[in-house]
Design a protein that fits this description.
227 residues; alpha+beta; 2 domains; four-stranded antiparallel sheet; two-stranded antiparallel sheet; 14% strand; elongated
Length: 227
């Protein structure tokens, strides 16, 4: 192993290919390599393969859903750029549950995303009303605290990926529904509740119970717990 890094993580598309191309394939038990790596170009270049020392940072430049692998660098590595680095080759040690790319609470975040995909028009209306009644200065403060905690715990990339997935779910449901503009408006309000719940789950171990309840309360009051 190189550069003092012995364990790293790589997120890929569901077919095992890199997010930045469709030719580099990652499979357990294999060594994935570039034919002519160029570490002199640094980590943010196409001269290296990329990995992260933190699971929740593997989705930088990626998206949810994903696959997640534990990997070992084989050869020299670039200097760390935050939690990310480059190498010309990686041994793919094993596959991990994909939700771990969303942080240690990723399974609960995924539960919110998946439930958002199945919301009914009535639920969307109720979620908007619940969030409107509950939100205010306390909600803004809890959101700020959770975002700060996500940054400090290197879960920013995980939150960005979860948020994009929630938006995608909302967009697909709104376009596929028969309620027209009214459905879209209801979805816009409901998405705020889903985003709050997802952020609450992402940082549940980092925020106070009161902050968690402020963020997740509108969601759980309508759809129930994600546990």
């Amino acid at each position: 192993m190189s550069g003092g890094i012995t364990v790293a993580y790589k997120a890929t598309r569901l077919d095992g290919t890199s997010f930045y191309d469709v030719w580099t394939v990652w499979r357990p038990g294999r060594i994935t390599r570039l034919p002519a790596p160029d570490l002199s170009r640094g980590v943010c270049s196409d001269g290296v393969l990329h990995a992260s020392t933190v699971k929740a940072e593997t989705l930088i430049g990626g998206a949810w859903p994903c696959r997640l692998f534990e990997v070992e660098p084989r050869g020299p590595v670039t200097p760390l750029d935050g939690y990310k680095f480059g190498c010309g080759a990686f041994k793919v040690v094993r596959e991990l549950p994909g939700w771990e790319a969303l942080g240690p609470n990723g399974e609960r975040v995924v539960a919110v995303i998946d439930r958002a995909r199945t919301l009914t028009y009535d639920e969307a209306q109720r979620l908007g009303a619940a969030r409107g009644a509950a939100w205010g200065a306390a909600g803004d403060a809890a959101g700020d605290a959770a975002h700060g905690a996500a940054r400090d715990a290197a879960r920013d990339a995980a939150w960005d990926a979860a948020l994009r997935a929630a938006w995608d779910a909302a967009h697909g449901a709104a376009w596929g529904a028969a309620h027209g503009a009214a459905w879209g408006a209801a979805w816009g309000a409901a998405l705020g509740a889903a985003r709050g719940a997802g952020l609450a789950e992402l940082t549940r171990d980092l925020i106070t119970p009161e902050q968690y309840q402020t963020l997740a309360g509108p969601w759980t009051s309508v759809v129930g717990s994600t546990a």
